[in-house]
Specification:
Layout lengths: L2 E2 H14 L5 H13 L11 E2 L1 H15 L4 H5 L1 E4 L2 E4 L11 H15 L5 H7 L8 E5 L5 H9 L4 E6 L2 H13 L1 H6 L3 E6 L6 H5 L8 E6 L13 H4 L4 H4 L9 H11 E10 L14 H8 L2 E8 L5 E8 L1
Helix pairs in contact: 1-2, 1-3, 2-3, 5-7, 13-14
The structure holds S-adenosylmethionine.
Length: 317
């Protein structure tokens, strides 16, 4: 016997609403799609669920009602044009970070010449000519993989400390290896701690003074400011969230390192909290730190689609 999907849909929606899930409608759709093994757009053509599918819908709904992130339940998330596999132990990439990627792509388009130069180099078997981008605090690989696949001929080095995150990073890099190769880009992973002689650890892949872009979405939440959403507080790894007393414990060494690695005119692009930008910050904003360093010029704070300051960019003087 089958059960009408409409009944299961409203049941699941009611359970998620009662649990305080912020988007019960959309999450129900995703859960139904996973349970039925269909794309969301095809749900309209599936009027009923088998007993096994119904059991699965109930189970997945209960997990979401306990505020387990939807991305863990469906096994991944979209980021720009990529599908990234995520689960326990790795930070879930956020839509805000897509703006960080765009800032890097805009810089490369402005400064590194024609977009297909890397492809031409790859055809010649010359793999050492494209711009070099280092993605510190790489997590699932969202930032670095988006850049490597969207900007032909780019060499990306992704640096991550946490072994749990590195497992997901390797998996996503393998999943997208063919796309990276097809556009003449390269992607390498370095397991290293930004707080523990990172230069020595990245020096096999990266030469000081030759990097075009240092990009990072580091942990930046002050330890005392525990996030309210259970999906973040209870499921994102603490190492991905907290950046010491003022949130800048990883950003400070990142800036020092960027000053050593970047070529003159090279870009640093750092994501930060919306209270750590130009207008809203006190002494501990990312723009303040970059200006105080003295080695960078053109420090600018960029806003996300909601108008909040989220990314600081600057060039090495
Ligand atoms: C906010 S997450 C960003 C992940 C990914 N770049 C993204 O945007 O989805 C920060 C990442 O930094 C890593 N991390 C934290 N401290 C680090 C350190 N000292 N050295 C290297 N990576 C670090 C964490 O493990 C986590 O994966």
């Amino acid at each position: 016997m089958t059960t009408e999907l409409a009944a299961l849909r409203s049941q699941s929606r009611a359970v998620l609403s009662a649990a305080g899930v912020p988007s019960p409608e959309a999450d129900t759709e995703e859960i139904l799609a996973v349970a039925l093994g269909l794309p969301r757009t095809s749900l309209a053509f599936a009027p009923a669920a088998t007993p096994e599918q119904e059991r699965r819908i109930t189970e997945l709904t209960a997990r979401r009602a306990r505020r387990e992130p939807l991305q863990h339940i469906v096994g991944g998330t979209g980021f720009r044009h990529l599908w990234l596999t995520v689960g326990p132990g790795v930070f879930i990439p956020r839509p805000e970070t897509e703006g960080l990627v765009q800032a890097v792509l805009d810089h490369l388009d402005r400064t590194v010449g024609v977009i297909d130069s890397g492809l031409a180099a790859a055809d010649r078997g010359d793999t050492d000519t494209g711009p070099l981008v280092v993605d510190f605090c790489a997590g699932s690989g969202a930032v670095g993989l988006a850049i490597a696949t969207e900007r032909p001929g780019t060499r990306v080095v992704a640096v991550e400390k946490d072994p749990a995150a590195v497992t997901w990073l390797r998996r996503n890099a393998a999943d997208h290896a063919e796309e990276i190769r097809a556009v003449g880009s390269e992607f390498a992973i370095v397991v290293a701690d930004l707080l523990d002689e990172p230069l020595a650890q990245v020096s096999r892949q990266v030469t000081a003074g030759q990097v075009s872009v240092v990009v990072s979405n580091p942990p930046y939440i002050p330890v005392g400011a525990v996030p309210r959403d259970p999906e973040v507080r209870d499921y994102d790894p603490p190492i991905a969230l907290y950046g010491g007393r003022d949130g800048m414990a990883v950003v400070r060494p990142l800036i020092e390192l960027a000053a050593v690695l970047l070529q003159p005119g090279g870009l640093i692009a750092v994501e930060h909290g919306d209270d750590q930008g130009d207008e809203t910050s006190g002494a501990y904003g990312v723009p303040d730190l970059l200006r105080a360093h003295g080695g960078f010029v053109g420090v600018r704070d960029l806003r996300d689609l909601a108008g909040r300051p989220r990314v600081t960019v600057a060039r090495l003087g």
